[in-house]
């Protein structure tokens, strides 16, 4: 028996065993889970909205499929009133369909998509492991995605402490509430990075550390007045590990070193929390250590009896110039060019961001929710970056180069953008370069969902995008792309013996030079334990 046939047989045997095992757990109230099968077929690459915003569980390959099983165990430790959940999510890519079929771009024989433990006490939640987390302050089914903490890439294994539910700030009579989290982890895609780079000679990283934090304040009390305002700050950092295929000068001054060991000490973890320090290969012009990214979030929400309407904004930043819209520019001249002598700042414009409007109808099944979004990322603090020197003391912090970094892998995990997928992910690159080549763009995006009949739901997504490449690698002229998806989901009726099954069929297409001309279909069958 040939290797691909053996692999297919083993995979199907494991799937069959899992399917037969799940019903045996149905009588246990503490256990829940699903079994899922998905297959995609396209004439070229998998279209954008059949591939994106699936927590990285997707690939561009024209023919791809997987079987997936999730099991969750929930219980309460009554003496302390502590609840906990153990979650597991195993995916088996079906790699071989016929003789000569190349290896799947899922990049793994078995994918451990999620494996985590949640421990909850009152409003505090501690999570350790890899867990899919939804984006905040938007409709995850209709939005193109958040710019910092999106749902596009595989979850990063981490330890995370969160105020997961809104906590009413004392003495405010519920008019002020807070939630947020802090986490440290390590990125799991080192083998993918090395394989993707291959023999191209491009750089890749191993054992990259990861940090994220966020805080959200809600102002308002829906029971008294329907308008609320939520303000949020999301920040993250990649740091540490090692950079391979490095051809600069290492920390010992040797040029041509194959690997550059980045900072991994306790100080690095503090610099990730409060940006400071500098990277290993920086000289006198030190920026904050690691790849520091984040977003300012804002949402107005009007909650009426029969509808709700929300207006939200997401401003992405890479450094001080785009976070605070100003930078210090009062250095001395001549031999005093390194000294801060004047109270002088350079002010940047607020031009980049994502603006969204979502509308929900509570009693109209045909159209339950509508989302419209506009994105602009062309400014990036301007087209000029100039560090002060003895001849010119001006400091301009432009060319932010969103999602990219000189020594760290950029804002991606397993080739997918961690944030918004309209930043064309490195997995599209064909030269082994882990780099976001198209991070300056404008885009319009819309989505609508509802029910055509009882148990039959639909979802439509449509996106138009114009890319200018990046400041470092601009396109000769702007290139455009249009992406569309239509999806139908049918939940079997309760009185049917197949009531635990859900069927989903989707059609997607891309048209343009940014992603290419792609058409495809995707079929998903899901069995829910309970």
Averaged pLDDT, please?
89
Oligomer: single chain
Percentage of residues assigned to helices = under 10%
Shape: globular
Beta percentage is 35-45%
- Largest sheet features: 18 strands, antiparallel, barrel
What ranges have pLDDT less than 50 throughout 5 or more consecutive residues? 1-5, 96-103
Strand count: 27
Give the number of helices. 5
Please identify the structural class as seen in this structure.
mainly beta
**Radius of gyration, rounded?**
24 Å
C-alpha termini separation: 39 Å
SSE blueprint:
Elements: H1 3-21, E1 31-42, H2 48-51, E2 63-77, E3 82-93, E4 111-121, E5 124-130, E6 158-168, E7 176-186, H3 190-197, E8 204-206, E9 209-219, E10 227-239, E11 242-244, E12 259-261, H4 266-273, E13 291-303, E14 307-317, H5 320-323, E15 326-328, E16 345-347, E17 353-361, E18 369-376, E19 385-386, E20 396-397, E21 412-413, E22 416-417, E23 441-453, E24 456-469, E25 474-491, E26 501-512, E27 518-528
Antiparallel strand pairs: 1-2, 1-27, 2-3, 3-4, 4-5, 5-6, 6-7, 7-9, 8-11, 9-10, 10-13, 11-12, 13-14, 14-17, 15-16, 17-18, 18-23, 19-20, 21-22, 23-24, 24-25, 25-26, 26-27
Explain how this protein is built:
With 530 residues, this protein is mainly β. It has 5 helices and 27 strands. The strands form 5 sheets. It has an 18-stranded antiparallel β-barrel. It has a 3-stranded antiparallel β-sheet with strand order 8-11-12. A two-stranded antiparallel ribbon has the order 15-16. A hairpin with a 7-residue loop joins strand 9 (209-219) and strand 10. The relative contact order is 0.13. The model is unreliable at 1-5 and 96-103 (pLDDT under 50).
């Amino acid at each position: 028996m040939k290797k691909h046939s053996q692999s297919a047989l083993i995979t199907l045997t494991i799937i069959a065993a899992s399917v037969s095992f799940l019903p045996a757990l149905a009588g246990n109230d503490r256990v829940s889970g699903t079994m899922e099968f998905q297959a995609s077929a396209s004439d070229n690459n998998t279209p954008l909205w059949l591939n994106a915003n699936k927590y990285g569980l997707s690939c561009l390959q024209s023919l791809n499929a997987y079987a997936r099983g999730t099991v969750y165990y929930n219980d309460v430790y009554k003496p302390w009133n502590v609840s906990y959940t153990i979650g597991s999510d195993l995916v088996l890519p079906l790699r071989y369909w016929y003789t000569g079929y190349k290896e799947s771009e899922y990049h793994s024989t078995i994918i451990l998509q999620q494996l985590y433990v949640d421990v909850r006490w009152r409003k505090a939640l501690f999570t350790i492991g890899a867990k899919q987390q939804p984006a905040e302050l938007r409709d995850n089914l209709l939005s193109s995605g958040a710019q910092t903490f999106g749902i596009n890439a595989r979850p990063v294994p981490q330890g995370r402490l969160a105020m997961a539910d809104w906590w009413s700030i004392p003495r405010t009579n519920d008019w002020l509430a807070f939630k947020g989290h802090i986490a440290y982890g390590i990125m799991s895609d080192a083998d993918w990075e090395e394989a993707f780079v291959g023999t191209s000679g491009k750089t890749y990283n191993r054992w990259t550390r990861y940090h994220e934090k966020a805080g959200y304040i809600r102002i308002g009390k829906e029971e008294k007045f329907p308008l609320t305002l939520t303000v949020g700050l999301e920040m993250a950092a990649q740091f540490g590990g090692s950079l391979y295929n490095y051809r600069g000068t290492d920390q010992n001054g040797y040029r041509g070193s194959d690997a550059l060991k980045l900072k991994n000490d306790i100080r690095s973890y503090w610099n990730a929390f409060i940006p400071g320090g500098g990277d290993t290969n920086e000289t006198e012009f030190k920026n904050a250590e690691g790849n520091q990214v984040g977003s300012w979030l804002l949402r107005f929400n009007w909650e009426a009896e029969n509808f709700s309407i929300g207006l939200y904004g997401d401003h992405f930043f890479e450094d001080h110039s785009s976070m605070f819209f100003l930078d210090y520019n009062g250095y001395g001249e001549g031999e005093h060019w390194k000294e801060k002598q004047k109270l002088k700042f350079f002010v940047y414009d607020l031009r980049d961001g994502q603006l969204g409007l979502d509308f929900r109808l509570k009693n109209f099944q045909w159209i339950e929710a509508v989302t419209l979004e506009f994105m602009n990322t062309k400014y990036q603090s301007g087209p000029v970056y100039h560090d002060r020197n003895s001849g010119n003391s001006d400091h301009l912090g432009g060319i932010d180069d969103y999602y990219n970094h000189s020594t760290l892998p950029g804002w991606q995990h397993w080739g997918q953008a961690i944030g918004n997928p309209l930043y064309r992910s490195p997995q599209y690159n064909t030269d082994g370069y882990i780099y976001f080549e198209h991070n300056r763009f404008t885009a319009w995006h819309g989505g609508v969902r509802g029910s055509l009949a009882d148990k039959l739901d639909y979802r439509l997504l449509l996106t138009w995008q114009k890319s200018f490449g990046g400041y470092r690698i601009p396109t000769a002229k702007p290139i455009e792309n249009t992406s569309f998806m239509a999806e139908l989901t049918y939940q079997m009726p309760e009185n049917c013996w197949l009531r635990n099954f859900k069927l989903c069929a989707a059609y997607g297409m891309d048209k343009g030079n940014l992603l290419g001309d792609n058409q495809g279909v995707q079929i998903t069958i899901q069995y829910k334990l309970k």
